[in-house]
């Protein structure tokens, strides 16, 4: 005889209701386990999962000592259209018994709400199962969660769980920070409930007026039970078991991505997941995957218990309408990126409910449509136009500004306006082609820096020449990409034109690296056919000397007198390219900042580039003077002059590009472009 049956003989049934509710909650846990066993048996028999089932964790949490469920799953096999399962009748009896036990507190109430009729019909519908055979369709009839497919034992359990939660709230003898409590064991239980509620209240405002997060707590033997009604979804009720040295919960979800999201959130808080299972079986759960897992937080005392409960409570709000948010974000960006956005939004503490209340994907589509210039076309996605990183950052910002605005009581129209401004600024930076211009400038810097290292510190000139060819090709690819982008989006044309100008800088620097490599290669005994025809000096060969037409090392090496001004010329070019990089970064950020001091800084940089160009003119003349001041072979003279000329040409082209950049920025600011310096 059950304990509550013994008490029943002593007094009114109302005295038994708390105990029967606790028994019903325990039956609820077992029923979910029985359904998992049924599905696992079919999955194993059809080869979807390994045969070595291990339900030790679930059995421990549900109080089932014997491992017969594992044997049932392991020995299941298909025979035609029937699933043969030894011990199936025992499982059927366990399901029927727990259905009746779970329904008992509801049947005791005055408002039956049809519970008895559903119970009788579903228990009768379980069938005999005595011969150990069952059709897959019969398993679906028991375990499916699709209301359009008719009633099922699974749906009945979910409905009873909701009703029992409401019944328990009415029985509560105390309120603990908003949680309904009854038959608690003492102050320790109350402290654990308060810890859970602290976490819950910290984020609960993010659900706004969405129903859910009702909490009830009671003691059941040696453990405290805390259950939370996460939302309106029938399956979204979670029961937490608190023991002296651990907190555990079993979580199931028809949506595998949401299960994985919750798994990641609790793992970040210190939880360890065990026995996670996912099955996708035709006819089960309306074709959706059904994932079940157990999270355990080991604790060495009350402080650790409270920390785990606080963390769990704070995460529950992010499960409400999570799948709806994922689907809406998935229309804006790639599906994995949509999940990443939700992860980041939860980690930032603002979630997704405000985004949904503010219009969800319609909010962002409206912002995309408001961008002129043909940036977004029909069928475009955010990540397709902006790139995954920028699109993800934008959506996280939108979710954040929506949460801040709605929590502060501001209107949705403000969120709409701020989203449009945010996207407009991002588009101005990303789709104008600034990133390609910045990449191109970085390659130019590599070229200039390499020349400076060779001329000033003796770096390998031949290696630089080889690398310079690769860098110059990478710079050319930036130009090509900019031109292709300009064909699709006219707003890119202005920056693409500047990039074309800047490519002359890369060409000049690569040519300088080539000339320097020729000089170094020939002076080290390199191949003469690598030299330009005009660089060859004919002479008379003698034994031990180079052949006719092959320059000797002394004839090709750059004169020592010219190395100083050549190095200074290279360093001045490096400085000018660095200023060019700074100018591009300021220009690409100006649409977002609009600050006058940024415009002033850009103008200052433009003048510094002009000064560098004049300085390079003088250094080019210094190279010529040095070559005339001392003995120098014609080959060395020619190589030094060409090297200096290419470096000086690079700063000339850089000055032209910087003037065009300055004029573009001034035109956007509404000022008349100035004359070239």
Automatic annotation (TrEMBL):
> What InterPro entries does the record point to?
PhoU-like_sf
**Protein name as catalogued:** Phosphate transport regulator
Source organism: Derxia gummosa DSM 723
Taxonomic placement: Bacteria, Pseudomonadati, Pseudomonadota, Betaproteobacteria, Burkholderiales
């Amino acid at each position: 005889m059950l304990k509550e049956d013994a008490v029943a003989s002593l007094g009114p049934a109302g005295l038994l209701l708390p105990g029967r509710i606790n028994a019903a909650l325990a039956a609820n846990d077992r029923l979910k386990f029985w359904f998992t066993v049924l599905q696992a048996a079919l999955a194993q028999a059809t080869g979807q999962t390994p045969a070595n089932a291990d339900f030790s964790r679930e059995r421990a949490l549900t109080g089932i000592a014997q491992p017969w469920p594992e044997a049932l799953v392991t020995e299941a096999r298909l025979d035609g259209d029937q699933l043969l399962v030894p011990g199936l009748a025992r499982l059927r009896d366990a399901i029927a018994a727990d259905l009746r036990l779970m329904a008992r507190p509801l049947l005791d109430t005055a408002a039956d709400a049809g519970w008895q009729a559903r119970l009788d019909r579903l228990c009768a519908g379980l069938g005999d199962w005595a011969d150990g055979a069952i059709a897959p369709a019969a398993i679906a009839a028991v375990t499916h969660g699709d209301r359009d497919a008719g009633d099922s034992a699974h749906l009945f359990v979910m409905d009873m769980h909701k009703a029992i939660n409401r019944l328990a709230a009415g029985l509560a003898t105390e309120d603990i920070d908003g949680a309904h409590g009854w038959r608690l064991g003492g102050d320790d239980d109350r402290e654990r409930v308060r810890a859970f509620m602290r976490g819950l209240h910290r984020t609960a405002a993010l659900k706004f007026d969405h129903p859910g997060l009702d909490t009830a707590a009671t003691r059941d033997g040696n453990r405290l039970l805390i259950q939370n009604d996460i939302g309106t979804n029938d399956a979204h009720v979670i029961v937490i078991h608190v023991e002296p040295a651990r907190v555990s919960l079993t979580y199931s979800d028809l949506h595998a991505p949401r299960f994985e999201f919750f798994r990641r959130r609790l793992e970040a808080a210190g939880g360890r997941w065990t026995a996670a299972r996912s099955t996708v079986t035709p006819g089960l759960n309306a074709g959706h995957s059904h994932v079940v897992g157990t999270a355990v937080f080991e604790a060495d005392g009350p402080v650790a218990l409270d920390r785990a409960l606080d963390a769990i409570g704070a995460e529950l709000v992010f499960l409400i309408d999570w799948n709806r948010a994922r689907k809406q974000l998935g229309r804006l960006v790639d599906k994995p990126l949509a999940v990443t956005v939700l992860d980041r939004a939860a980690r930032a503490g603002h979630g997704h409910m405000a985004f949904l209340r503010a219009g969800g994907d319609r909010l962002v589509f409206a912002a995309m449509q408001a961008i002129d210039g043909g940036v977004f076309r029909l069928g475009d996605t955010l990540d397709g136009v902006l790139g995954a990183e920028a699109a993800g950052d934008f959506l996280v910002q939108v979710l954040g500004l929506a949460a801040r605005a709605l929590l502060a009581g501001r209107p949705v129209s403000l969120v709409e306006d701020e989203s449009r401004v945010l996207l407009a600024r991002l588009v101005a930076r990303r789709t104008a082609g600034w990133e390609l211009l910045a990449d191109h400038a970085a390659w130019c810097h590599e070229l200039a820096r390499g020349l400076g290292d060779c001329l000033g510190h003796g770096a390998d000139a031949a290696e630089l020449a080889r690398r310079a060819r690769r860098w110059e090709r990478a710079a050319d690819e930036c130009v090509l990409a900019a031109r292709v982008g300009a064909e699709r989006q006219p707003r890119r044309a202005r920056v693409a034109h500047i990039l074309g100008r800047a490519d002359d800088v890369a060409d000049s620097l690569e040519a300088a690296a080539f000339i320097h490599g020729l000089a170094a290669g020939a002076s080290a005994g390199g191949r003469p056919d690598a030299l330009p025809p005009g660089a060859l000096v004919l002479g008379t060969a003698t034994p031990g000397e180079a052949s006719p037409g092959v320059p000797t090392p002394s004839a090709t090496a750059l004169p020592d007198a010219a190395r100083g001004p050549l190095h200074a010329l290279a360093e001045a070019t490096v400085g000018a390219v660095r200023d060019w990089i700074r100018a591009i970064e300021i220009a690409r950020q100006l649409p977002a900042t609009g600050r006058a001091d940024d415009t002033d800084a850009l103008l200052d940089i433009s003048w510094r580039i002009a000064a560098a160009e004049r300085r390079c003119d003088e250094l080019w003349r210094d190279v010529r003077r040095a070559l005339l001041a001392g003995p120098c072979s014609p080959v060395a003279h020619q190589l030094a002059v060409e090297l200096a000329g290419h470096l000086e040409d690079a700063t000339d082209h850089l000055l032209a590009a910087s003037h065009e950049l300055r004029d573009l920025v001034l035109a956007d600011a509404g000022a008349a472009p100035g004359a070239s310096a």
